[in-house]
Amino acid sequence: MSYFSEYKSKLRTAEEAVKVVKSGDYVEYGLGCTMPRALDKALADRKEELTDIKVRGMFTMHPLHIIEKDPKRETFTYSVWQLSGLDRSYHDRGLCSYVAGVYRFKPTYYRKYLTVDVAMLTVSPMNDEGYFSFSYVNSSQKAICEAAKVVILEINENLRWVSGGFDDKIHISEVDFIVESDNQPLDEIPDIHATEVDKKIAENIMPYIKDGSNIQLGIGGMPNVIGKMIAQSDLKDLGMYTEMVCESFMDMDEAGKLTNKYNKVGGGKGVWSVTLGTKKLYDWMAENERQLSFPVNHVNSPYVMSQNDNLTCIVNCVSLDLFSQFSSESSGTRQISGTGGQIDFVEGAFESNGGQCFIALSSTRKDKDGNLISRIVPTFKQGEIVSTPRSLAFYAATEYGVVNLAGKSTWERAEAVISLAHPDFREDLIKEAEKMNIWRRSNKLK
Q: Is the pLDDT of residue 220 over 80?
């Protein structure tokens, strides 16, 4: 049987394909712009026929029918590995649960521990060799398919082929059913606006970046503005080694900064696992032979990434306490995002020759009444999640500077952390540090 004959034999409508789902099943939706639309709607339409359907996804970028049609979670229970803004809204309303985990372990979770009854993933059209590309999301897609009892692919022609390292595609022989969608435009993340504080933090970090560095940027305004500053700088021969590709890598490339000359892992090519952004970014990544897609257990492996010299990582956090613990995913018990790959890159940058990882935050925020609140706190509020422990605390950055916490005692850390705080809060923080016996009388802020 030819590949295209096999394709036709497995072709179904969305309504026909979702009939395979049984009560009690675990269903996988994948990540971001590759989450299914037609299959999601068809599954939601079976609400009255089914019970106890557990659906897992990650970084949801469009409203899901299984949630909108089941606001009481009577049939569908949705959980995510990382929260988008939409997921945060769902979570705040009790419509979404969080799956905790270290991002680099996600493929292994599926291969060793998790039940997957039905995988529903959106992919590119099939090529002449019978393969479908996972396109802009490699992450753990292949591991999900390997774990699944049934694999259903939804085709979207707007998902383009990308250049891959491995685990970036799936063969028709590994697929049970195929659904052709109406090819809706891909979900986009607009170019994130950077505040003046973001720009100041970026300016503080920029002097640490050297020629030949391999760059990892997290999501958010501050990492993005650093990329734009790099594009306008005198830096040269930079490499892209990143969990997620954001707009500023394209800016760096267009400015001639992104040569990947010293990217050993990629063999002189860029390395990435997920691309989320605008159509312009998707078009830049499509069939781009200078960048290679790999699964997250490869990209986020501290051992693998540390083979690149001068690995420079910039990530965000929500708050920082005087013991130098970083909270990057919750405010108290309220889930905001997720663990993601922060701890992966903290460890990998430490092991890299010349490597450095900066965890950045603005020193303050405003509450709903406009009051200024310090993001640097004596201790975290009850229930707040520690994303990066103090034992892995290295560089921290705010608009007031950059400090290196590696190997420091508690009193040295307290002094360094307080130096990053807004001046209006420093005296109170010193008093709290004294109460906790982590302040030395001879301490003084620079």
A: no
